[in-house]
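Structural prep section.
Before we set up the soaks we want a predicted structure of the protein with copper (II) ion in place, mainly to decide which crystallisation condition to try first. Input record follows.
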Amino acid sequence: MRQRHVFGQVLALESIVAGLVFFVVLAVLGYALVKRRAGRRVAVSQRNERLRLEAYYVGVLAAFAVFLVAWTAWQNHREHQVADPPPLRVDVTGFQWCWTFTYPQTAERRSVSGDCRGDDLPTLVVPTGRPVELRLTSRDVIHSLWVPALRYKMDAFPDHVNTFTLTMDREGRWLGKCAEFCGDLHYRMHFWIKAVSPEEYDRWLQSGSGPGAAA
Ligand SMILES: [Cu+2]
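Run finished without errors. Recording the tokens verbatim:
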């Protein structure tokens, strides 16, 4: 999956840079603590500032922060560029406490929903190799559509539509969750996202049965 790959890379780079900075700061702090312990009878310095050194320190940390923010924003921007060919559209609505997936291009506006009780989870069916634009909103409070294995999460707001486009490069099924605490039964707002071949997807869309049916 492209987005999984991209955001996996972003996470790896951020972890390496953040870890590096953390351990360098820790090492300098440890050095100062050990080297300047009271028992060592080190002469107390009369200086109370070292402007140039402090400026370097602040400059280096700021450069790391700017780099991380810019890199992440750039990757996010690349991931959200308009797809070509034009994507299939699926309207996703979060509600207390489940999800509805609606396919507006079908004549009868095919819809998959459920109550997220037990194993009866709604399934978002998408074809492989074709960009799919998810248009995300909420019927009541703020929810968040999260597919951990795909590294994707986006908030669903009432009276607002958030969009993102994904392209699945292989068939499979992944568990999605709500990542925004939204009330008593938030914990059970799970769904499946299932990628099938374009032929199977077309068949499913026409037939109104198959892998998209609950369970
Ligand atoms: Cu929720």
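Observations: The chain has a mean pLDDT of 86.
Flagged for discussion at group meeting.
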